[in-house]
Amino acid sequence: MPPIEYDEMALFRENAEEAGLTYPGPPTVERVWVEVAPGRRLSALRWGTSDPELVLLHGGAQNAHTWDTVALALGRPLVAIDLPGHGHSDWRDDKAYWPTENALAVATTVRELAPNASMVVGMSLGGLTALALSRHAPELVRRLVLVDVTPGVNREKASAVTAFIAGPESFASFDEILDRTVAFNPTRSVSSLRRGIRHNASERPDGTWAWRYDRFDLPEGTTVPDFGALWDHFDALGVPLMLVRGADSPVVDDVDVVELKRRRPEARVEVVAGAGHSVQGDQPVELARLIEDHLRGAS
Questions:
Q1: Whole-number Å distance between alpha carbons of 65 and 198
Q2: Which of 65, 83, 199, 288 is a Cys-bridge partner for 73, taking CB atoms 3.0 to 4.6 Å apart?
Q3: Which residues contact 83 (CB under 8 A, 6 or more apart)?
């Protein structure tokens, strides 16, 4: 069977049509790279030709294309970054894909691609990375949106997500990887999941398929950082903050919201109906509306 053709810039019409968005023609999007350490680069999608107004950071085991429909709905110049070890970004030998380590690489990338961005939006691991970025390089985070994550996330709350990530290393065919993805995302359309796999997996010369992200198999003796320590980052955060929860997601609970509001009473909290953990995949147009509101300073 011949390899399945893939052009990462050829699927935007599908995104728009599925979301009911007007599609005037292909958007201006280019893939770019930034060296963040000797011999190691981060990759990103740069939307538009003007100075980027937004920086978008995806979740673990995702990539920058997870934001495509949101970006189309916003229609603003922005940068969607592939986190280290994800998408087209280089992998780390030490597999240290944690918020603080990610934030160091992301800061270098934002300084080069979007130093004047008005807002950083981060989902899941990308949200914790954005929070760490606000401590490491506060001048780069002027407004912050966290999508379905707080430092209160733990193994139990994220069990469905980690169960999917911990699946097979390779798949015999595209249909096999699609079937597993559909099984873990029963509320999503098959067409959107098929498109997501095209962006997040690659076909090997022998016809098998593998994910584009480095698996989270930690080297022996490595410990998982305590995400709870990131709560203290809110105490020094002096920018407008919005938390967006997926109504059907267990990753953020009411206890997390109480703690967030204790530390940041003015924080805006929104709950998106019909969305699980991946709000940008389940309800991208509504998420884009909330991002636009927060960017304009609405409450």
A1: 10
A2: 288
A3: 42, 57, 58, 60, 89, 97, 102, 106, 125, 126, 129
Looking at the whole model, is its pTM more than 0.85?
Answer: yes
Tokens 């992998």 label which residue?
91
Q: Which residues contact 167 (CB under 8 A, 6 or more apart)?
A: 180
**Residue 238 Ramachandran class (φ > 0 left, ψ -120 to 50 alpha, else beta):** alpha
Q: Is 83 helix (H, G, I), strand (E, B) or coil?
A: coil
37-94: pLDDT as tens digits: 999 999 999 999 999 999 999 999 999 999 999 999 999 999 999 999 999 999 999 9
The type of residue at 92 is R
Strands 40-47 and 241-246: unpaired
**Active-site residue set:** 124, 148, 277
Pairwise CA distance, residues 222 & 216, whole Å: 11
